[in-house]
């Protein structure tokens, strides 16, 4: 149940990155450069957050057999 909101987090961060990228593209007159960068940065941020939380989760050490 701990990772139930991961899909929502992924969608929100990618959408936020895309919207910010579109705003920057309109402001700076570029085609889709910042929109694409925003999507990749949003996805990367979600993956970074997931990996960090998996490393910090209890019972995740190599010698732990309680799973």
Helix share, percent: over 70%
Please indicate the percent range of residues in DSSP E strands (runs of 2 or more). Answer: under 5%
Supply Rg.
17 Å
Shape: elongated
Question: Quaternary arrangement of the chains shown?
Answer: single chain
The span between the termini is: 15 Å
Please describe the biggest sheet, giving its number of strands, its sense, and whether it closes into a barrel.
none
Residue stretches low in confidence (pLDDT < 50, at least 5 long) are none
Structural class: mainly alpha
Task: Quote the average pLDDT.
Answer: 86
Number of helices: 2
Summarize the helix and strand pattern as letters.
Answer: HH
Strand count:
0
Describe, in plain words, how this protein is organized in 3D.
The chain is mainly alpha-helical. The chain has one domain. Helix 1 packs antiparallel against helix 2. The longest helix has 24 residues. The protein is elongated, with a radius of gyration of 17 Å. The mean pLDDT is 86.
